[in-house]
Each structure stands twice: as C-alpha cells, then as structure tokens.
Write a structure and sequence with these properties.
The structure is a single chain. The protein is of the alpha/beta class. 41% of the residues lie in helices and 12% in strands. It contains eleven helices and seven strands. It has helices spanning 2-6, 22-35, 50-67, 79-90, 101-105, 110-114, 127-139, 154-157, 174-183, 190-197, 199-205, and strands at residues 12-13, 39-42, 71-74, 95-99, 144-145, 216-223, 241-246. Helix 4 links the parallel strand 3 and strand 4 (95-99). Helix 2 crosses helix 3 (50-67), helix 3 (50-67) runs parallel beside helix 4 (79-90) and helix 4 packs parallel to helix 7. The longest helix has 18 residues, at 50-67. The chain is globular, with a radius of gyration of 18 Å. The chain starts with a helix and ends with a strand.
C-alpha cells in the first residue's frame, strides 16, 4: 500500500466486490491506516439485502474504531445504516458516507415502471429509507452525493429481471435530479448541493477542488431523457422532471 501511495494512489476500494471476510478487512484497514489512505467500501452482502448492508456498516465502523483507518461508506440505502453512520460521526470516528441521486429520488415502486432500468445494488428501498437519506444529506451526516454511474448495453438490460446486471447511468442527470429533489423542495440550498457533489468527494479523497465557476441555469423544468451523450440508455429517468442544468 505504501508503494501504491508513492505511485500516486490516493484511495483504496473494493469496487463493488465487498470484502466479506472481517479478518481480511481488518488487516487491510491496519495497513491503510499506516499508509494514510482512505478505504472506500461498498457495504453489501452478495444479494444486497437490507440486513447485509447494516451488518457491513456495523463491521466497518467497528474496524474503523479499532484501527483508526479512514472509511468512506458508499451509496448507503437503508435508514438503519444512516443511523449507524450518524452515531459514528458523533463519536468522532473518521468515517464519511454517500448517497446516490436514485436512492434520494426513487423507491422500490420505480421497478414496476422502469423494470431492469431501476435495478441496481443496493436496490431501491422504501420511502422511509429515502426520507432518512434526504435528512442525512441536509444535516451533513452524508457529505457526498455520487452517481454510481454504471452503463450497460441494451441487450444486457433486456434480459429477465433476475438475470439483468445491476446498475444505471447517471452522470448527466445527477444535478437536475438532485436539484429537483433537494433544492426545489427546500431541503438544502443550491450551494450545499454543489458542495455535496464537489467539495464533499474531494475531502474524502484529500484533493483540492479546482476553483472554477460552475455555470448553472437555475430555473426551469427539464424533461430528462434516458440517454444524452452516453452510448448507454439504462436509466430510470426517462420522463422525470428535473430542474436546472449545468452548462458545458
């Protein structure tokens, strides 16, 4: 890990293949702490169950407390996991968390409308979970909004639901979705949304945010399309009414 750091690596991640062995994760955390590299973890079991997410968050927080390693918990979806993160941050543990636009805007009911284009890991959950995520973004318990952008070919997503791969695209639609759900609803300010999309991730990675002006068209409905510049179209946002857009 020290060699990786010297080569320019700024963070470590299991990249969606969650380390299930607590002993392995503990050893990784000790070494990451020595190298002063943050660990970015997908808190999921194999089938991405609610209980699995909670258990992985509990495990990571225990290891964080033991080793002093800096943990970042990716795309949280369960309200119980959010509560665990909040308690850990109040205790002063070096842990941060993130939410995705789709978990902030949608619930499991979107599956009946969008089919496999609403299939992701962790899955969309219930309205109470969505509300917990919104509150955590507003309070600063969750400091990062990240898209978990995952393009797939149309023929892959056309498979039966159980066989289709997890993941949706989301980079181009992230701002408009979050602006509608968080800012226009009065939950947070536009400035806070920009922070969650830019400064928050940069602080997790220990990098500087380029001090460039982000030009935003602040008002006006925009009907989102399944794809813009992306070659993929696996998106649940077809027809969703976003608000505002970022100018190129």
């Amino acid at each position: 890990m020290q060699a990786l750091k010297e080569a320019g690596v700024i963070a470590l991640s299991d990249d969606g293949s969650t380390t299930q062995d607590a002993g392995v994760m503990r050893e990784v955390a000790y070494r990451a702490a020595e190298a002063r590299l943050p660990l970015i973890d997908h808190c999921e079991d194999g089938p991405s169950t609610r209980r699995g997410e909670i258990a992985m968050v509990e495990r990571d927080l225990e290891i964080c407390r033991e080793t002093g390693a800096k943990f970042h918990l990716q795309h949280l979806s369960a309200r119980e996991a959010v509560a665990l993160l909040e308690a850990a941050r109040k205790d002063g543990l070096p842990v941060t968390g993130e939410a995705t636009p789709h978990h902030l805007a949608l619930t499991s009911s979107a599956v009946s409308r969008c089919g496999t284009n609403a299939k992701m890991a962790p899955p969309l959950r219930e309205e109470a979970d969505r509300q917990a995520l919104l509150a955590a973004v507003a309070s600063g318990v969750i400091t990062v909004i990240a898209t978990d952008h995952a393009p797939h070919a149309a023929e892959e997503k056309a498979k039966p639901f159980e066989q289709a791969p997890n993941g949706i695209i989301g980079i181009e639609t992230a701002f408009s979705v979050c602006n509608r759900v968080l800012v226009k609803s009065g939950i947070i300010s536009l400035e806070t949304l920009v922070e969650r999309l830019t400064t928050g991730p940069a602080q997790v990675l220990g990098i500087q945010v380029p001090q460039e002006t982000i030009q935003i068209i602040p008002d006006g409905d925009c009907i989102l399309q399944a794809a813009g510049c992306s070659k993929a179209s696996n998106s649940p946002w077809q027809g969703f009414v976003g608000w505002g857009r970022i100018l190129p």
